[in-house]
Write a structure and sequence with these properties.
about 300 residues; alpha/beta; Arc Repressor Mutant, subunit A; D-Maltodextrin-Binding Protein, domain 2; 5-stranded mixed β-sheet; 3-stranded antiparallel β-sheet; 13 helices; 12 strands; elongated
Length: about 300
């Protein structure tokens, strides 16, 4: 009896661990609250341990519960993906969905070409893009709310895998009227006195600029902090400051109204790639999308 219902019990356990309450798990599983509670009790009885500490409506995992979640989640994920896995290997995969987290700049500049390629090859697979910041994207990955994220990372947490795929040059941009526009190769010392327009300091670009200037023992001055490459480029074109961006965000129209200088001599190339939970299982649909992410798409 217990072994026959093990998968059902584990689903109830995992969903309760994810949501933190029996009622939320019941809603996700389309079951009654008593049914979910009964399945968790049956699992605890079978394993002869306590999996949750109950604090009112909230359910917190015990050390044994955390260990079981780590063991059970990939097993249940693989079992639930079995039909799609089978279709992928022995038939055609023409349905399902891919859930992707990405920042606004990645959605605007990196993902369009990938999505067009994916839609041509897999028109029946629905793609759900979540426009989030880096920290929120990591949270969605950890909560299994998305299959993976696409973005750039400097510091990779121990529970996260980052697979760089694309690399783009760092570029200094300025209006044609800016004094530095007459220099063919501005140095960090040249940039130091001038006001920079940068994304918020919690984001990778700001951290990278801070790291490089500190490494060369030079100060830098931020006169405007604002999110989004499109906004930054707009304010730079108005002569409100200069900025250091990634070459992927520069269009032909941008290069007509802005002066751009390659800064690879001072700043590392910026990588973008797949971010996912370490040890996590990817659905066949997600694997199909990642398989299309080849560097050749952007001329590398």
């Amino acid at each position: 009896m217990y072994k026959g219902n093990l998968l059902k019990h584990l689903r109830a356990f995992i969903q309760t661990a994810r949501s933190g309450s029996v009622s939320a798990a019941a809603d996700k599983l389309f079951l009654s609250q008593p049914s979910v509670s009964q399945q968790i009790r049956a699992l605890e009885d079978g394993l002869e341990t306590v999996l949750f500490q109950r604090h009112g409506p909230r359910m917190q995992l015990t050390p044994a519960g955390k260990a079981l979640l780590e063991l059970a989640r990939p097993l249940v994920d693989r079992l639930e993906a079995l039909p799609d896995d089978f279709a992928r290997r022995y038939g055609s995969l023409d349905s399902g969905e891919v859930r992707i987290a990405a920042g606004e700049s990645t959605i605007m500049h990196l993902l369009p070409a990938l999505l067009m390629r994916f839609r041509r090859q897999h028109p029946g697979i629905f793609v759900h893009l979540h426009n989030v910041t880096g920290a929120d994207g990591l949270g969605m990955i950890r909560e299994d709310q998305v299959d993976f994220a696409v973005g750039s990372m400097l510091d990779v947490p121990t529970d996260i895998d980052y697979r760089p795929i694309y690399h783009f040059n760092p570029v200094l941009i300025m209006s044609p009227e800016h004094p530095l526009s007459r220099k063919r190769q501005p140095t960090l010392a040249d940039i130091s006195p001038h006001g920079l327009i940068l994304p918020p300091r919690r984001l990778t670009t700001y951290q990278l600029v801070d790291l490089v200037f500190k490494k060369h023992a030079l100060p830098f001055r931020v006169t405007l902090e604002v999110g989004g490459w499109e906004v930054i480029k707009r304010y730079v074109s108005l002569g409100m400051g200069i900025s250091i961006v990634t070459s992927i965000c520069l269009t032909e129209a941008d290069r007509e109204r802005l002066v751009a200088r390659d800064m690879s001599q001072f700043f590392p190339r910026r990588s973008y790639g797949v971010v996912m939970r370490r040890g996590g299982y990817l659905s066949p649909q997600a694997e199909r999308f990642i398989d299309l992410m080849s560097p050749e798409l952007f001329g590398e």
